[in-house]
Fold these 4 entries.
Entry 1:
Amino acid sequence: MTIDSPVRLSAGEGPGHPERTPRLDTLYRGFEAELLVPLWTEIGELMPAQPASKAVPHLWRWRNLLPLAEQAGGLVPVGRGGERRAIALANPGLGGRPFATPTLWAAIQYLNPAEDAPVHRHTQNAFRFVVEGEGVWTVVDGDPVAMRRGDFLPQAGWHWHGHHNRTDRPMAWIDGLDIPFQYAADATFFEFGPDEVETHETPEYSRSERLWGYPGLRPLTHLRPTPATPLLAYRWEQTDRALTEQLALEAEGHAVTVEPGHAAVRYTNPTTGEDVLPTIRTEFHRLRPGTETAARREVGSSVFQVFDGVGEVTVGQTRWPVERGDLFVVPSWQSLTLAAGTGLDLFRFTDAPIFERLNLARKGS
Amino acid sequence: MTIDSPVRLSAGEGPGHPERTPRLDTLYRGFEAELLVPLWTEIGELMPAQPASKAVPHLWRWRNLLPLAEQAGGLVPVGRGGERRAIALANPGLGGRPFATPTLWAAIQYLNPAEDAPVHRHTQNAFRFVVEGEGVWTVVDGDPVAMRRGDFLPQAGWHWHGHHNRTDRPMAWIDGLDIPFQYAADATFFEFGPDEVETHETPEYSRSERLWGYPGLRPLTHLRPTPATPLLAYRWEQTDRALTEQLALEAEGHAVTVEPGHAAVRYTNPTTGEDVLPTIRTEFHRLRPGTETAARREVGSSVFQVFDGVGEVTVGQTRWPVERGDLFVVPSWQSLTLAAGTGLDLFRFTDAPIFERLNLARKGS
Amino acid sequence: MTIDSPVRLSAGEGPGHPERTPRLDTLYRGFEAELLVPLWTEIGELMPAQPASKAVPHLWRWRNLLPLAEQAGGLVPVGRGGERRAIALANPGLGGRPFATPTLWAAIQYLNPAEDAPVHRHTQNAFRFVVEGEGVWTVVDGDPVAMRRGDFLPQAGWHWHGHHNRTDRPMAWIDGLDIPFQYAADATFFEFGPDEVETHETPEYSRSERLWGYPGLRPLTHLRPTPATPLLAYRWEQTDRALTEQLALEAEGHAVTVEPGHAAVRYTNPTTGEDVLPTIRTEFHRLRPGTETAARREVGSSVFQVFDGVGEVTVGQTRWPVERGDLFVVPSWQSLTLAAGTGLDLFRFTDAPIFERLNLARKGS
Amino acid sequence: MTIDSPVRLSAGEGPGHPERTPRLDTLYRGFEAELLVPLWTEIGELMPAQPASKAVPHLWRWRNLLPLAEQAGGLVPVGRGGERRAIALANPGLGGRPFATPTLWAAIQYLNPAEDAPVHRHTQNAFRFVVEGEGVWTVVDGDPVAMRRGDFLPQAGWHWHGHHNRTDRPMAWIDGLDIPFQYAADATFFEFGPDEVETHETPEYSRSERLWGYPGLRPLTHLRPTPATPLLAYRWEQTDRALTEQLALEAEGHAVTVEPGHAAVRYTNPTTGEDVLPTIRTEFHRLRPGTETAARREVGSSVFQVFDGVGEVTVGQTRWPVERGDLFVVPSWQSLTLAAGTGLDLFRFTDAPIFERLNLARKGS
């Protein structure tokens, strides 16, 4: 074991660390042989004064992403095994893994006319968000859910799902999942379903929406709280109206916005009022033209997609101009400022529920 | 960025994957340039059919650990910077990091006579468990808590704590923390306190125990639920008595054991009845001589320490004889069987609360 | 004390009861003198084998109620002191008290053109339901909420509220409160506000609806759960659509109705998914023509109002034909059957949350 | 119905009330005929500015109660039908009903040597508290629980229970239940069991205590929260020690008492940390000699029993000297002050969980 030991120690330095001596070296070789690592050589890395994420702020331009997805549409089949034509953001600090942040996966998915993405299920919690286009239906447990610009489609772990495109145009959208988190925590299960989706119906509204899509009304047959939302689509008309009204109410003198000119809603599970998914929080933010938000930071990481408008975003020391479709990452405890040019609409998802449920949430400015 | 890109793709193979062509290579180079990784090349690794932990079953022998800790006692000072003379178990599957499992830290800590481990606080949840010896007091927020064989001392994140040894003998014990989890999730905060503990008092019982150590009785001044237990020591006499009575009740014909001959208690937070710490579950198991448990597996990883007795442990395909002090690791979804020789007492800690609170818990056989 | 003692005992009879003797009489006089009552004389009354409510099934005809309310409109002023022109259902079993059931108040309220019902607040939880008409605004904490046919307006305890009618027609509606419960439990606080409502505005939608009226969308400024719903109006269009879709989904083969032909929704608090009010549950039921429900009974009492259609209702041994506006009471543990003639729409309110939160709920058939 | 109508109205007076006229009389007769009662004649009584309980402060002297119970022991059999030789406190404001408060029942129960109180179960939540004596075992679901001075024995609704006395001396104790609450709310179920208790064993500790009686330790077979405590006895030694330590910690400078010289514990359910019973809160208070508490009042009613010492108690405007065994009632929203002479130990039970769970709790001074 000594030779193959994955443990390799060298003496630390500085206050609180022992001086290097032959006896210390011998001790360290003993540690290695027994697969032991002392805290005192590692503490600076493992226990920083505040979160020091390996993930870095980064921006992906929609104008670069979409053409690559289109090329993939011509070269890469969608089918059993590969499962999805999804292309993930790989944070440059995370060693080439397809992880937008240490916990979150974000990808652009692309489906050609007449294609089916085969049915499967997995413990990973997922959602889709549509920045443009329409024509694909996500079929969840046999219920076809239309996807249209501005729609948010949550999809809790371990539900069967596939996609079909019955139009004559391709469609692209964003997938968000907790793949990196579940991968690191060893919680992943995955199962194949049929190669084709159960139904190629194209209803305007899913059964889920017909059952659940009324504010505060709950079917008497569904009274137990569920860990994730039973509502499979949150339509743009509702989101847009909610944000419009928040800004209108603010203009009428009511304190209903996050800060002046900054409206925001959280997507929630109607059976609990909590986040739509157990591990992922999703929100939509709207800034009036000229609004600049206060700098904020929090434990946990976020991915934003610009839905509309132009503006400037500052994450830590990095500043980017942004426009429709652009995606950017805010690592844990990095400060974020949003500044609207002509007005800015942003979709956001984060791993915040993980920290809140484990008593690890913290916010700062 | 292309040259320095951390993303390096090669074409996948098999069903559902595209054939390698020059155009595909070009597409992949485009992905790399934009820091993108397709799902179809990664899905097998990222989304296995069931948890496929990199962590492996492993056993550390107390008879090897303790002498190394004693040697460290002679060579490595305890003080500010290194903070603790703690030597961590490094799972051979986890790349030499001091991680017993992907989420859990387990270490032997050693304190010489007259030494103080300096005061600090951190967001990591922690506990101590004493397999032998006594003479150290852990001082938590100024409250000195005696440590004695069999005692379990939980210690929630962000509380000030140090240790002092006021005897003429060294003492060793086990520390458990959620360091790997908080490190991976970027949730860590750490702050230094005084170099010496606030008090060198050596009371038999801490103030915490004097306030909280009565079954079902709660001080009227402390009626709010707290995220972690306010009781800072769970004494061996109580644990031993609870287990003895479970086996006695079983012998009298009452179904109070996990299975025949297998008594077990969970350490809980008296303000909620839930786990003592938000991220760590702790339990104590006792097997009658000759008992063999049914094979069980669950999502999430465990570390066990043999407190007393001898027996045999099977984790996945690995089988070890075990004796007092030995520590072993059960990775996620690996099956575990415990077999008592002369009787077997085991302390266990796991990351189960993480999975339960995030709706990811699963059990199998 | 003996003479004025409110306690008057006579010897019980039957098994388990002592025979009447002079010594027993002396003992009973001793009990009376000390304000004591033995269990053995009272147990049959106090601890029946199942709930034996003093409340009885009863039906109030809308065609009789409304004219009396109209007459009151001509004779009884609305103003400070009397507070509301509300006329309550007095269950014939409850001694002439204005209690529809032992826990629930139900009244018809009537407001003339140009009238204000003065502002007050009270700990009683309340709601309004509109079986016909429109033109009144309930002003809750300064937010004017329009009332229209089919609308349900919950109103949690201790919020300021008044009503104004700015049309040229009177309007009547139903008030439901937990007055009897809070009266019996001694929990009532009451405070006067201004004699006139703060605003005579007549917006189509209240600020509350503009902020909260979107399925699953929550303002980021209102993330804490509240004990009662922040949504002040549940509009008929939504309720009607939810019920229509349930029946349509049933017709398509999906199991989303309570039983064949019986659709139902519960009004819930979007911050928790639970009942709109801490003590009162509200629901809306729709029966297809010809549908007859299974007999059901439960602990706790209900009041129903027929919103539309005709049918027959059976409560315990009592059977009534019902039509629009009729109100009837189902006492605790009495069985209920609903039978639709041409179709039947019913609003229901009950005290069920009291029993569920106190672990006293029970259902039977 | 008009003639037999239980409704009898007379015109109200004062501001907000209509003047008496023949037309008003006619309207009121119409109300009576239809079983209607207007709010404006009742509002003062039903909706007072603050709780105006019909219950009044009252004290029952143990030196009077106990002899009457002893006499009952000679005259009244214990057996099926009467069920218990229990003699209840009848609050003088509550019309001769055996109700200590509008929600709570309090009784002295008395069992002769060799007697069995027959087995039954009921939805009412119950407990026993022992101010003196010993020798009776309460058998709950077949588990015999010894009763000794200072012990508190909770007993959740719908569990089978009986009592047996296997000594040669009678024993008296206090029963507390939520009979008045469940009676008013129509929630009561009751069922007879065997005439004799299942076992006449007399173990020092019940199986319940052997399983649950360890601070913070939970059997692995019992991990679900239960609505009431599974621990069937809270022993005096524990309560006494907790209170002694609180006062000792206070003397050492720690803020762990309710106020100077006033220690207190709440009995809680170890599976949740909440009250032992869904409808009843129980506490034990200890005052150092000479301590006088601040005046406090709260929504909900309490019954106290003096366990030891002498002192003076002030409830609203009433003041009594008290001594061992005396019982007194504090109605809702009446202020309470406790003053210790030689030191004062008090057991208390209240209906507070009802109000807290229904968002009706309020405190004042």
Note: The two ends of chain B are 49 Å apart (CA to CA).
Entry 2:
Amino acid sequence: MDLSVLYDAKSYHMPLAERIAERINQLIIDQKLTENDKLPTEFELMEILDVGRSTVREALKILVARNVLEIRRGKGTFVSKNPGINKDPLGFAYMQDKMRLAHELMEVRMQIEPWTASLAAQRATESDMAELCGYCAKVTDMDLSEALHREADLAFHDCIAHCTHNQVICNLTPIITHAVTVFSDISERSVRIKTRISHQQICDAICARDSQAAQRAVLAHLEANRENWEKMAR
Amino acid sequence: MDLSVLYDAKSYHMPLAERIAERINQLIIDQKLTENDKLPTEFELMEILDVGRSTVREALKILVARNVLEIRRGKGTFVSKNPGINKDPLGFAYMQDKMRLAHELMEVRMQIEPWTASLAAQRATESDMAELCGYCAKVTDMDLSEALHREADLAFHDCIAHCTHNQVICNLTPIITHAVTVFSDISERSVRIKTRISHQQICDAICARDSQAAQRAVLAHLEANRENWEKMAR
């Protein structure tokens, strides 16, 4: 059950810093270090791994580049919030045809998000619901700036994922929802009122534990999104 | 429609090498460089970006760590096969409870993969079908070693995703299927005959353009997988 077995076979061909990065990575996993946990110092790592300072530094840089670690000046090296998850894990930035990407992404969202909402309606705890209502209220605040509105919108969708208590859904949701904000960039203002209504419907359905209604509300929300950016594209 | 806008706001607080890495990244996107395309030399990058050699090197290392670039000794720096996609993009390695992960991952696969197969049945071209049958034949070859069998199995599942002609599904599928191989590690031999039959059923359904049958066949395949590792876990 150890994911490291997947990588070991390849590790002999890796440069030293890369191999040491993998070992530090394994150390994090074995010692169950999580968000905000502090890593041993460079000197301690040199001792533990029996390598020189420059190799440890190279290895730490690799893990920072991969978002496993973050360096806080003067404080040390810490495990990142979502270790190993970068800001564009499916490589959307490298896809040339953004209109095609928007279309394909929407197809995937239509399959995953209504289902996610129905699971959320079945599994949300009382405190999950309170949190969801909080985010929903934020999104419906029409006085928010565009940036804050978007942030609240994403937090709302992440919270729905959180209500499922499935970590894979939690990690997957930001990837497929956050990228889409790019396409709603220009249309944001015009859809804001619609968004407010549909968010309230989703929130109400989940809090009423009505998984069918939650599914329908998310589907309607996505349909409205799609119509909007298809109109924009024409 | 430019994903880089998401990152620009943050870039002022980044270290120089990180900012230069982002600019090289943007260069790759703007110049539409893809797999196996060669990057300008270090010297050319120094000129283009107006920074010193050590900064260019640091930046390149960051992009290698993120799997955007790969260095081929004596040949130069090239764009990776799936730029920006690392081997564990959802951070499964950092999840402590692997049994829970297996369970949650299966829940997500059950939602996505039967649907993927139904899209594949609707959209596969003649050449897609030929390719799929090729991988299917490989998986059914009982004389293959365990490693080669697994490789053929993953290629078969990737090929189904490819038949949908949706790039997001193509990039998402390996993430949710490849991780699962970890759990079938020990059980591989006992399920091999079952796997052979269900792969053939999936392949036949897609080639017959029967999306309902394709969906059912994948669901049955996943059910068998689940039963198998739940039995193992007890």
Note: Residues 7 and 22 of chain A are 9 Å apart (CA to CA).
Entry 3:
Amino acid sequence: MTTSANPTMLALEKCAKGGPSLASWNEGPAKQSILNFVVGVTTTGSPQFVKPEERVAVFDNDGTLWTEQPMYFQLAFVFDRLKVLAPQHPEWRDRPLFSAVLEGDMKTVAAGGLRGLLELATITHAGMTTDDFSKIVEEWITSARHPKFNRPYTELIFQPMLELLAYLRANGFKTFIVSGGGIEFMRVFADKVYGIPPEQVIGSTIVTKFEMLAGVPVLTRLPELNFMDDNVGKPVAINMHIGRRPIAAFGNSDGDLQMLQWTAAGTGSRFGLLVHHTDSEREYAYERSPLGNLDKALTEAQAKGWTVVDMKRDWNRIYPFETCK
Amino acid sequence: MTTSANPTMLALEKCAKGGPSLASWNEGPAKQSILNFVVGVTTTGSPQFVKPEERVAVFDNDGTLWTEQPMYFQLAFVFDRLKVLAPQHPEWRDRPLFSAVLEGDMKTVAAGGLRGLLELATITHAGMTTDDFSKIVEEWITSARHPKFNRPYTELIFQPMLELLAYLRANGFKTFIVSGGGIEFMRVFADKVYGIPPEQVIGSTIVTKFEMLAGVPVLTRLPELNFMDDNVGKPVAINMHIGRRPIAAFGNSDGDLQMLQWTAAGTGSRFGLLVHHTDSEREYAYERSPLGNLDKALTEAQAKGWTVVDMKRDWNRIYPFETCK
């Protein structure tokens, strides 16, 4: 992974001269709540002050750091991968779910539910070493294009969130991804596009097995789910990987609710934020939907005073490729 | 966790004025191999040069960073904990393994093997929240004493390894613990005694469950093993938690062999080291033994050119409480 053409940095440099700022955030309560929180925890002597090593911020990925419509980007990878592998697996034609994907019958795929998708995901993500898997993802992520924007998926990251990540890091925060997405899928690009190194990327995992192949030690990926990093899984994964309770959590759906609850329940200054997708023109508008369902978390945000970002109102720029305002 | 009385720093300051050095290492091939490796990977333009973000070093804990005799320290915690809990569990008297611990019959305990010990460990480590568990460990680790040295276990850390950790960090390395010990057990003291923060401590885990207790979100520890971070588990855990292949690995037993193999098999400059316990007077002398068995790894170290530390010969000081030479 090279950082020389780091889009995060390029995007930040383009619009925000003179250090990290929140230039793509309109003035308003959302931006103000972020500034208030950060000033509080970084001001020595303030009752809100938090020691730098305790400044842990966790970010969901799909719908929070990048777009998740018309489907989770990793799902597009699963479908593309299935098509690549299909010729070697004529038996897939007899499996309704598999043939539905191959024929583009998304209705049948959707009817298979989460369980069906997980089956497709584990099968397409397994049967190779971890090193080979990274290469496959790398190849896909640089060549695949988003159907609406006709751009690489890694360009569909949210400029305001890039600025927020940079602003938090400039204020001593350690930023982590805590996503339902595959940990080894995200690690391929997270450093390059978000400036978040592999050891700060937490996600769902499949079982891997250490073995010797012709005298060379490898980790082989098996078609078996190991850990689902969503809903109640997020606080569990945070505890396992970080071992500290975050002081700030950022999400966009009910899958992030427990992560926000866990973060908010600690002592001292705490910050919770939900991205509400309200811009059908520049991005997508949805909330109570099968994908990125935002329902209970929205209600709880209002009750608990978490910040809710109205994308249409609060962000003057959504993607790095848009012109600076 | 306070860092004001950080014994690592105190120990280092006491003997090594003027920045990190390897003062407790005698001149010889072991010390020289460390210096050669670090100079190589940090010299810009050198063929051995490694970018700072890739300078990942992994350390086993028991027998590598601190003593592991006459039994793993966490096992002493298990036994002590069992005795504390016994009055609430009269039914344990009818279970041979449990009553053996309560009666100090170590022969029967040993006959139960790893499986028996794991059962004892999961039972004594479960049934409370993660926060409560940390408090229990904190209390024990500050009050319990090692039977031979009559000192807190956290004083039985190896001064040369503290110096090595500090030396590597001063050279841009990120240092991780990768141990068979419990992740939440070690995190209580790892930052204070080794300067290794919770997010860089990797270990064995039991299952934890997110739930609401009287409206408060907690993580409850269940009496079920989740992951055993030993042998083939170590490379798997490294991949899961760090997502990068280390360039240096430090261990002392066959349980560390796969971690060393995995580290050594990467491209570019690599370093492997085994601590050989050869000092029956100042510490303990053992190798092919039930505890900290060093057999296959020692053979492979010789074949692969990994560094083997002869404690008696290579370390002029073992513990921080010893007088500086």
Note: Residues 231 and 255 of chain B are 4 Å apart (CA to CA).
Entry 4:
Amino acid sequence: MGADPLRRVVAQLSRFPGVGQRTATRLAYWLLNQPADVAAEISDALAALHRESTRCGVCFDVTSADPCNRCSDPGRDARIICVVERPQDIPAIERTGGFRGRYHVLGGALAPLDGVGPEQLRVRELLSRLSDAAIEEVLVATDPDVEGDATALYLARMIKPSGVRVTRLAHGVSVGTELEFADQSSVARALENRREL
Amino acid sequence: MGADPLRRVVAQLSRFPGVGQRTATRLAYWLLNQPADVAAEISDALAALHRESTRCGVCFDVTSADPCNRCSDPGRDARIICVVERPQDIPAIERTGGFRGRYHVLGGALAPLDGVGPEQLRVRELLSRLSDAAIEEVLVATDPDVEGDATALYLARMIKPSGVRVTRLAHGVSVGTELEFADQSSVARALENRREL
């Protein structure tokens, strides 16, 4: 019964992290009891994900347009760039409504023991964006952990000589929490209390 | 950004029961970081679900073949039919390895207050299967709740006059638990201790 369509769905849904056999089974039967459109619409969205996703050549967020809508939005403040480790950190900042500048996705944090140096991150691309005279501040929103802190200090050392202000999200975000999963009000407070590096 | 492929995946995955915005976001970014094949394979399985699924005309399980592999398997015991409420109850029985007979999916349980009488279930289809002289026992594995118990008693009353033995899963399955989610050993004990109705 390897070709059984229901078992196939269970097997495929089980690939998602945190989705076990039982949850996958529950979801598969749920789908089967919905109109066929529901499975078709979810299927179509998944099929389009890689095909229609690209990276913004400016901020390196995942997007369907290059440059992305945020980078090309004249309503956003071009004087401040918020540096995050991952694309999924951006919604955590956006949800607070407390930031209306631009972003830069580093692609991780410095971790010399794992072989992640500045060359493995988009540091060069960030520095080249600073040649735009409009930019007054870089807000470093890397995670509040050893790697995130080291990355923030490294960026501060690289950027400050150019006269651009470098700030860091305040420790409203509890230590040890990944930014992606931080609660909205902690992130909001962290934005307000950002401090000079 | 309504057409954003990532947001679309988040929105679609959020349709699954128990999958909130955060989980959907986590899964969508996880997918994006996998090879494109992963999303494509999950997508294909979902697209095939309704297209390739049908109901077995004998037991009414969800299947890709009619009659299903279990109903056409000569290695299974044709003398005993296990009656379940839903297709997803079958794997709960199968996992125990304690049953090698055939199944019958009723499609629910009697619930007069909700307008579910014998005509809304596949009772007639079950009774017509009993005209096969090979059948010696009907094991009623409806849920151990009011509706499931009422259904078991109703079936016993209908079937016993024909001389077929009617048994019920023992109360190894804790009362109030839906069979689909019962733990394997409780279901195994319930199979062993099934009692005459």
Note: Chain A touches chain B through 52 residues (CB under 8 Å).
